[in-house]
Design a protein that fits this description.
single chain, Endonuclease, Chain A, 26% strand, globular
Length: 142
Amino acid sequence: MSELYEVLDSAKVLDTVIDAVSKTQESLTVVEGETDNHAVHPDDRYFKTLQNLLAQKKQITRYYFGSPESFAQKSQQSEGIIWRYAGPLEQYQRAIIIDNHTAFFKIGQEFAKTHYIPLIALLKNYLHTNNLKALDAMDNHK
């Protein structure tokens, strides 16, 4: 699998992600699940890095998986971030995509990194498709 992705040392995931995210040139896509605050505990460096990117006018898009009510509340908390609702938590795939050429994602219990453009395109398509389905489902319930 070395051509497709590299499995990361779990002890170094946060440092590796922060380093890569800090080098964002244009755009950052972040995926968030409703229960992440219980399972994911990045330190202040991660949030400061995101704030620096916003200050530099980098585009940050956050796809949110969870309830529509939680999304509505959460999406009001971060000015400057483009929020996209992506559907229920059951469809959640943790990922970060940097400048469309680097992605971090979780496979089972392991974290991986890729520069393989077709794999990054699949992740982006997955997020976009889930966003469209979620919006359609919300429109049909009105």
